[in-house]
Amino acid sequence: MRGESLESRAMIVELKHRLIFLRHGETDWNVAGRLQGQADVALNAKGEAQAEEAGRIVGRIIGRNPDRLSAFDYVSSPLLRSRRTMELARGALGLDPFTYRLDDRLMELSFGQWEGMTWPQVKAHSPHMAAAREADKWSLQPPGGESYAMLTERIRPWLETLGQDTIVVAHGGVARCLCHLVCGAPTQRAPSLDIWQGRVLVFEKGKYRWV
Q1: Active-site annotation holds for 24
Q2: Would the CA dihedral through 74, 79, 81, 83 be positive or negative?
Q3: What are 42-58's pLDDT values in tens digits?
Q4: Which candidate in 52, 53, 108, 115 is catalytic?
Q5: CA 154, 77, 164, 198 torsion-angle sign
């Protein structure tokens, strides 16, 4: 990608398999603008509909042939909103909703003491830390939480051992780190990438595309 640094190039993980990413569906905390992090928040009704739609999109991408669907590994973050999204997406594909794996490394970025707060509340409570994060969103670690740089290193070992085409359900922060690790999205830009709910992000041949 244009604008990437040599450091970013050196960190790229070359995928040998296709990775299809679904962000969990909407929650009431998403609607309220609350930082969810690793808080275990359930999907709302819109989020459940988004999860089913994402499953239908996956079906259009790879088809509904049972042999083709079974060739994929299915992996989810252990947080409730991701598990429920995976189950609804698999149901929309005509698969057993509960036959998939969990991996703790796919949990969302921890916001530590900021979890449950809106960004205006964070700025009012911790103005200096909030300003520091706005200046360097990639490296700044919230109190008791994780930076994007830390999340990237948590995800990297999982990504490096990807052994087959995989469908993964996880979180916006995880997707942003994947864009950096797989496609070289610069650290200045990756934390601000829009990661959509109800759509599907496909990583393949060092690039990503939305469906």
Answers
A1: yes
A2: positive
A3: 999 999 999 999 999 99
A4: 108
A5: negative
84: its two tokens? 């429920």
pLDDT digits (tens, 9 = 90+) for 137-191: 999 999 999 999 999 999 999 999 999 999 999 999 999 999 999 999 999 999 9
Domains within the chain, CATH numbers bracketed: 6-202 (3.40.50.1240)
Give the pTM.
0.93
> How far apart are the C-alpha atoms of 22 and 200, rounded to whole Å?
5
User: In 3-state terms, what secondary structure has residue 63?
Assistant: coil
Instruction: Identify the active-site residue in 24, 52, 53, 146.
Output: 24
Chain position carrying tokens 């360097």:
136
Q: Are strands 19-23 and 200-204 parallel, antiparallel or unpaired?
A: antiparallel
